[in-house]
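Aggregate trends can hide what the representation actually does to any particular protein. In the encoding step, the backbone of a single protein was reduced to a row of integers, each denoting a local shape. The record that follows shows the chain in one-letter code together with its fold in token form.

***
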Amino acid sequence: MFLTASNLAHYLLARGRVTPESVVAGDFIVAEAGRRNRNFKVIRRREPGLFVKQVKTFEPQAISTLAREAACYARAQSDARHAPLARLMPRLVDYDPARHTLVVELADGAENLTEHHQRLRSFPPEIGRLLGDALGAYHSEAGRRFAQETDLSVFPRQPPWILSLHWSAGSMFPGLSAANAELARVLRRYSDFSRRLDRLREGWRYDGLIHGDMKWDNCLLLTREDGGQELRVVDWELADVGDVCWDAGAVLQAYLSHWILSLPVASGLPPEELLRQAERDLDAVRPALREFWGAYAAARGLAGAAAREALIRCVLYGAARMIQTAYECLAFSASLAGPPVALLEVSLDILKNPDGTAAKLLGL
């Protein structure tokens, strides 16, 4: 049975997740929030709201990633030693493997970080600090313990797919848009791309739990009654045991990519000239980046040479994640043009000179 806004109440009643009284009394409002899954928000005044997620198709990959997300929530909440991780995740309410449906507590009043930065038109350093604390919390002892003690059968232990895109002639990634097929050809054509992506894949580590899809859309900001702010990280479908620097690199590139995608590419200037002219605008981003890295390194207990080595790994992975951002921007495009070209230019510069990027672009 596929869930709809009409039958959702009956389903949740049958699962014992809502009461008949709440539905009859009208304390049950459903809002569709679908993306790659069938998503619904259940808004209630007297009880915490619910977020319901069901696969759109019964494809094995969709089923396995939803099961992986449910396993992450269940494991994190089952052991007090995983409390740093559980505090970041939405609370698991129900998982139905027969109907491939996941129910978690809704983060009422939350705003994702994309919305937050766009609304403020700025990059608050305190948000960078929250991100650093959050990632550091599950990349340190809590994440290592989770990876060691959890049933690893739900985790594929695979490096990110973007590190293999240059191998593809189309068969590995069916459904490529014309622009994405062109992007894959660019990666194959330029040996600097293919060689450096191969090196990243070969150097991939399995040192802890990673989210796998760390981006601003998956980071929810909540304001407490005392005025303080908390962060929740959602959508753990791509969680895996892997290289923790991948998630941290994704945060670094999120700031850089947001800046790059805001550049006036329509002016017709080549990407390198746009980057030179807009470099001063990075001054608005660098304080948040420095706060992120300082908090992250502190949470992981990194200092000295170890901190620098981790930073360079994160910067390199951020460059690879930037290629993925370009890919996502081109999902429905007919040609490789506009801001994604600038993303590829910057990505290649970073892959060639990660130390210089850390100092020049990130101010780290």
